[in-house]
Design brief:
Elements (H helix, E strand, L loop, with lengths): L10 E4 L2 E7 L17 E4 L1 E2 L7 H4 L4 E9 L8 E6 L5 E6 L2 E7 L5 E4 L9 E9 L10 E5 L5 E5 L8 E2 L3 E6 L4 E11 L2 E10 L4 E7 L5 E6 L2 E6 L13 E9 L2 E10 L4 E4 L2 E4 L2 E2 L2 E5 L13 H14 L3 E3 L7 H10 L2 E5 L7 H8 L14 H18 L5 E8 L8 H15 L5 E5 L17 E4 L11 H19 L3 E5 L18 H17 L3 E7 L29 H14 L15 H7 L8
Parallel strand pairs: 25-26, 25-32, 26-27, 27-28, 28-29, 29-30, 30-31, 31-32
Antiparallel strand pairs: 1-14, 2-3, 2-5, 4-13, 5-10, 6-9, 6-14, 7-8, 7-10, 11-12, 15-16, 16-19, 17-18, 17-20, 20-21, 22-23, 23-24
The structure holds beta-D-glucopyranuronic acid.
Length: 619
């Protein structure tokens, strides 16, 4: 699915700004048929939950309504007019005046409607978008709605981050010519000093297509005729982690000599491969340093914000992170574009978080229910999950920064039914994109001995909290447990391991000379204990700390104003652990300013020796 862009044949209008806003209970039936009667206004993009002081809005379960007037530019007489919503969390309905023009389920991927037949160039229309935040056992992510004794509907769910909702990303109006480019798919390869670019351009109706590749200076370096083919770039500059380089594939639809549509798709030339226990980018071993993150900031909730975008990437660079996972849903496209431009590596995750009723039982003390059953995660859930995978890959397939798909976070992979559930989803993922490795992030309860799906995947992504939820405050035991656990996975599966989550809640300003959970010292010591283990195990090819920053959660006694496992606070100030991580990761990257480190080193020293067959495993 193409990102809307302004080109010589297309125009793009942002509909961001302040819209009228109301919750369903405050308006009459069919609120899209008239001006919304409300005093409230809500900014787009932003989650609506934290904007207002009224807790009934924050806790509302169901539909809310956004409305504004939109004028179609008067020059768009001969064009198709398309409305695009980057995200409506979790379900959206779009009305142009009284007409429903689009409906979409899935809170973190875009959808569009061709509204040409409902609008006129130069005229205004009433645009109303309904957004529903409900999660059920057949949505991704899943949840449950209950009704309290006083009649209020309440939403519960199986993940800890707050269920922010609304229009958290941009809304656009754009024009395309009648015959237009509908999609572009690019797969790159490296052949000595040349790059290969397999491309496919889909058009609205069969048409004559020409493509050209421009380098970063705008010079043409390859061209071809036809809607699909393979191009060669001599003396290619590959896209590398930490050293991004982007080309543009300019696709044109021709009518005789006339260019009737043109679209420029940025791409990078790079390869990704899993070979034995290594993760290779451009044929070279890559060691992931970085975080699981969240789209989460005060007031905006999950609302995309370019200032936080830039600042967060600055902090990641400062701390020496070369990568992150889009835990636990696809992030705004602006985030991936930025990662493409700056050489940051991304593990791109679907919103399939919480397919795990054992975690619910653990937290509530209630008897465990089976995760995979007709009443819980079932065939309809899997259909929604399949759709989430389709939409993720359709949106993100051309991003060089995306090196792996993560199709679920902490599913109950050790339970009966997991294999039947996941096998078709994995097949689908590989069919849609045969070029990228696929993983899921394994929950604590899933061990090398009882996990039922790990052999199907390419990389073992393991979430572990030894020293936090298990062996709390006892880092000696934690270190031993973790080592035994990881060695079990390494021995059984012989695949690369990424520690996809490890972390400890920490209140900034709390200190102790002892190993006391919640202190800044403990977070640093906890991470160091984990790192000692990673450095002793050659199969470990990456470490993603949970979490980049503190983030908001639903109410509960397990959290103090949110999840505090951030290495940065919610307002992005470093805790002590950030400085410790910075020292380690800059050393791993070989980019420590002084000290003569081996600039090419991609692995922690111990692991590297072992991979090289030199035996020494301890630091
Ligand atoms: C893991 C989840 C993550 C949580 C984390 C935690 O994957 O979403 O935030 O635990 O408890 O189980 O901090």
């Amino acid at each position: 699915m193409l990102k809307p862009r302004s080109t010589a044949t297309r125009e793009l209008v942002s509909l961001d700004g302040t819209w009228r806003f109301a919750v369903d209970t405050a308006v009459g039936e069919r609120p899209w048929t008239a001006p919304l009667e409300t005093r409230l206004e809500a900014p787009v993009p932003a989650s609506y939950n934290d904007l207002f002081t009224d807790s009934a809005i924050r806790d509302h379960v169901g539909w809310v309504w956004y409305q504004r007037r939109v004028r179609v530019p008067r020059g768009w007489t001969d064009d198709r007019v398309v409305l695009r919503v980057d995200a409506a969390t979790h379900q959206g309905r779009v009305y142009v005046d009284d007409v429903l023009v689009a409906e979409h389920v899935g809170g973190y991927t875009p959808f569009e409607a061709d509204i040409t037949n409902h609008v006129r160039a130069g005229q205004e229309f009433r645009l109303t978008i309904g957004v529903n935040n409900e999660l059920t056992n057949t949505t991704i992510p899943p949840g449950t709605i209950t009704v309290s004794q006083d009649g209020r509907r309440k939403q519960t769910y199986l993940h800890d981050f707050y269920n922010y909702a609304g229009l958290a990303r941009s809304v656009w109006l754009y024009s395309v010519p009648a015959v237009h480019i509908a999609d572009v798919t690019i797969v790159t390869g490296l052949d000595g000093t040349s790059g290969t670019v397999e491309y496919e351009v889909a058009t609205s109706t069969p048409a004559h297509v020409r493509v050209r590749v421009l380098d970063a200076s705008g010079a043409e370096v390859a061209e071809s005729d036809g809607a699909s083919g393979t191009l060669r770039i001599e003396d290619v500059t590959p896209w590398r982690p930490g050293a991004a380089y982007l080309y543009d594939l300019v696709a044109e639809v021709l009518d005789g000599d006339d260019v009737v549509d043109t679209y420029a798709q940025p791409f990078g030339v790079r390869t990704v491969e899993v070979s034995g226990t290594r993760f290779l980018i451009n044929g070279e071993p890559f060691y992931f340093t970085g975080f699981g993150r969240h789209e989460d900031t005060p007031v905006r909730g999950k609302g995309h914000d370019d200032a936080y975008l830039v600042h967060d990437f600055q902090l990641m660079e400062w701390v020496g992170a070369n990568s992150f996972r889009t835990s636990h849903y696809p992030y705004a496209e602006e985030v991936l574009d930025f990662a493409d431009r700056h050489g940051i590596v991304v593990i791109d995750e679907t919103a399939a978080v919480g397919l795990n009723l054992a975690v619910e039982a653990g937290l509530t003390g209630a008897p465990p229910r089976p995760t995979f059953s007709p009443d819980t995660v079932n065939d309809d859930t899997r259909a929604a999950h399949a759709q989430a995978i389709r939409e993720l890959i359709a949106r993100d397939k051309n991003h060089p920064s995306v090196v792996m798909w993560c199709i679920a976070n902490e599913p109950s992979s050790n339970e009966e039914g997991a294999r039947e559930y996941f096998e078709p989803l994995l097949e689908l993922t590989r069919k849609l994109d045969p070029t990228r490795p696929v993983c899921y992030a394994a929950v604590m309860f899933a061990t090398a001995a009882n996990d039922g799906i790990a052999d199907l995947f390419d990389v073992l992504c393991i979430n572990r909290y030894y020293g936090w939820y298990v062996a709390t405050g006892d880092l000696v035991t934690a270190e031993a447990y973790l080592e035994g656990d990881l060695r079990g996975w390494a021995a059984k599966f012989g695949k690369p391991i990424i520690m996809s989550e490890y972390g400890a809640d920490t209140l900034p300003g709390l200190h102790s000379v002892w190993d006391q959970p919640w202190t800044e010292e403990y977070q640093a010591a906890y991470l160091a204990a984990n790192h000692r283990v990673f450095d002793r195990i050659a199969e470990v090819v990456g470490e993603h700390v949970w979490n980049f920053a503190d983030f908001q959660t639903s109410n509960g006694i397990h959290r103090v104003d949110g999840n505090r496992k951030g290495v940065f606070t919610r307002d992005r100030r470093p805790k002590a652990a950030a400085h410790a991580l910075r020292a380690r990761w800059r050393e791993i990257a070989g980019s420590k300013p002084a000290g003569g480190q081996d600039a090419a080193r991609q692995f922690p020293p111990g692991a590297r020796d072992e991979l090289n067959g030199e035996g020494g495993t301890a630091r």
